[in-house]
Design brief:
Radius of gyration: 18 Å
Shape: globular
Distance between the termini: 33 Å
Number of helices: 7
Helix content: 10-25%
Low-confidence stretches: 1-53
Structural class: alpha/beta
Mean pLDDT: 80
Largest sheet: 6 strands, mixed
């Protein structure tokens, strides 16, 4: 996209909430602004998600909020790189939606969360329980869990309640906090921790890069231009767009997403964390 171009609901169809919801319902591809990427929402058992020549693959498992909706699960995303399967956020029902993809929960290498709210983290104990107690299954490869500052304490606390530890003589869970850039077995993952007031508690944006392609996920956030340099020029921006017209504390609206997108200049924008339902 040329620097002089501005984002509008007419020029970039994926920015329009109605189009985003229709794309989910019909399982249509995100428009070809996202070169090298493909993104679909699995509402039915999928046919074929991605062409073989795509380098990084991205699947929308849910783009909703804590409010239950039949047409949008809690925010959760599957990122497939050359040799890794990564979950970004996941609340209730995310693993059920994952079951509609071509990737099994057994194949997840890492889960990284943007913040600690239940609609973004409940998949953690659910995934651990699934890996621990699936009949006739013994996982051996480690599971990596990552989050913003405070994540290790968060992990210790949920373990007190849910006892997520693996069964003896199986796999290992490796828990770490990312604040800045980290190398995950050859894959570049960078986070930007938000200052107080952008959202509630410890929250961060997440960037995943591979083979010259980059994906940035805002997590939940209010309007803050500090994300511009972090996300500038990314191929895909997954942005909090909780409300259609007006921001609320800790969350963006469509006009604010469009304003940030105009400064960031991503090749495509995908709206996430949608509170408002699709109109009939």
């Amino acid at each position: 996209m040329r620097p002089s171009q501005k984002y509008s609901s007419a020029r970039l169809g994926v920015l329009r909430p109605a189009n985003t919801l229709i794309a989910r319902r019909n399982m249509g591809n995100i428009p070809p602004h996202a070169s090298g990427f493909s993104a679909r929402m699995p509402s039915q058992p999928p046919q074929s998600y991605f062409s073989d020549d795509l380098r990084m693959k991205f699947t929308i498992l849910g783009s909703g909020t804590c409010v239950p909706r039949k047409d949008a699960g809690t925010a959760g995303y599957l990122v497939q790189t050359k040799n890794k399967n990564i979950l970004m956020d996941g609340g209730s029902g995310t693993l059920d939606r994952l079951a509609n993809t071509q990737v099994s929960y057994k194949e997840i290498d890492m889960m990284i969360v943007s913040h600690f709210h239940p609609d973004h983290t409940l998949t953690i104990p659910a995934l651990c329980q699934s890996l621990n107690f699936t009949p006739q299954y013994n996982r051996t490869k480690p599971l990596f869990l990552a989050g913003p500052p405070g994540f290790k304490t968060f992990w210790e606390q949920i373990n007190v309640v849910w006892n997520c530890a693996p069964r003896p003589d199986t796999y290992e869970i490796k828990v770490f906090e990312i604040s800045g850039r980290a190398d995950f077995q050859g894959l570049a993952i960078t986070t930007l921790v938000y200052p107080e007031g952008v959202h509630y508690g410890s929250c961060q944006a997440i960037k995943i890069e591979e083979d010259g392609k980059s994906l940035v996920y805002t997590g939940d956030m209010g309007y803050w231009e500090g994300i511009v340099d972090f996300a500038r020029g990314c191929d895909v921006l997954i942005a909090d767009c909780s409300y259609p017209v007006k921001d609320t504390p800790g969350h963006l609206s469509l006009p604010s997403v469009m304003k940030l997108a105009g400064k960031i200049q991503p090749r495509a924008v995908i709206l996430s964390h949608l509170y408002y339902p699709r109109k009939k």
